[in-house]
Amino acid sequence: MSSVLASGALGQLASTTFWQLDAAPLAALALSSVTLAILGCFLVLRRQALFGDALAHAVLPGLVVAWLITGSRGPLAMFLGALGAGLVTSALTLVVTRYGRVERGAALGVVFTGLFALGVVLIETTGARQVDLDIGCVLSGQLELLVWPGVTSARDLLDAATWRSLPHSVPALALVHVLTLAFVLGARRPLALAIFDPRFARSIGARPGVCGGALYGLVTVAVVASFEAVGSILVVGLLVTPAATLRLAAPRAAGNLGQLVGGAALLGLVTALAGYGIAVGLGPLAGLGTLDAAGTVTTLGGVVLGVVAVTCRVRQ
After folding, report:
1. Is-contact 293 284, C-beta < 8 A?
2. Could you point out which of 140, 172, 286, 308 has its C-alpha 20 to 30 Å from the C-alpha of 162?
3. What tens digit of pLDDT does each residue of 164-222 get?
4. How many angstroms separate the Cα of 92 from the Cα of each of 83, 85, 112, 160, 207?
5. For helices 208-230 and 75-99, what crossing angle results, to 10°?
6. What region, left, alpha or beta, does residue 141 occupy, with left being phi > 0 and alpha being psi -120 to 50 degrees?
């Protein structure tokens, strides 16, 4: 039985269908899951796990302004508008927290609800109501549409022309992934001090506020870059679920930043790939057809978290 499954998997990997229809979505999922799981560890430890959900609402005025300026709903215009709104959300959250002396979660709630309301007002007063901003924009997620027409087998990967037909979302996510790894590895000690002992960090001149601002900016870029490929629901799930699951399953890992980040990245990757396999593989076998990959991955992550929570409760 195992040999049959193995031969079927190898045959799938060698097929043209896999390379053209599945390779790019799998690459986007892998890059998004690892990047967001890593950044989500810092948000969970800072008790701002819903920062990604806040961004999903706060980018609305950015989308409207981008449409007003360019007159286009194209991916680039929507991406730039969402990115600008996301950066404004991050900056305003830091300002309200620092100068308004408001708890971080409350500040985030005030900022994103205010920006979301502003977006609604702009839609009602500028004529954008007649334009469907949901279709094809960065918030919808287009994982199933990431087709790589230039590749038919693994041999084609050696041809430079093949890479030029790769969907633009994958190189963008790869760049954000590299930036995330460079930031986390390069600023590991200031990040740890800013999370676990910000007072001590300030006393030695580590400037945790600057470090936190850079973290928020990077999270914003990663979230917006991932929206187009995997959709906002999966972005929020990948930001929260791996880190929360690992912290629940191994409480001691929360005190070791390296273990938490590495474990969450691995869990996020495995969950994403397994969820995609269930969506495109087991769904048709069960007579359900091809399932929505983003929804399946998010559901699988929630199931894993639930199982871990129940197991930990039983052990207690």
Report:
1. no
2. 140
3. 888 888 898 999 999 999 998 888 887 777 777 777 767 766 676 777 778 888 888 88
4. 14, 10, 9, 43, 18
5. 150
6. left
CATH number given to 26-315: 1.10.3470.10
Rounded to the nearest 10 degrees, the angle between the axes of helix 208-230 and helix 232-249 is 120
pLDDT one-digit tens code per residue, 47-104: 777 777 787 778 778 878 888 888 776 667 777 887 888 888 878 887 888 787 777 7
Q: How many CA atoms lie within 13 A of 202 on its CB side?
A: 5
Instruction: Determine the pLDDT at residue 128.
Output: 59
The predicted pLDDT at position 288 comes to: 67
* Token couple for 271: 């969950």
Q: What is the pTM of this model?
A: 0.82
> And the tokens for 245?
């699951």
Query: Across all residues in the chain, what is the average pLDDT?
Result: 79
| Domain residue ranges in the chain | 26-315
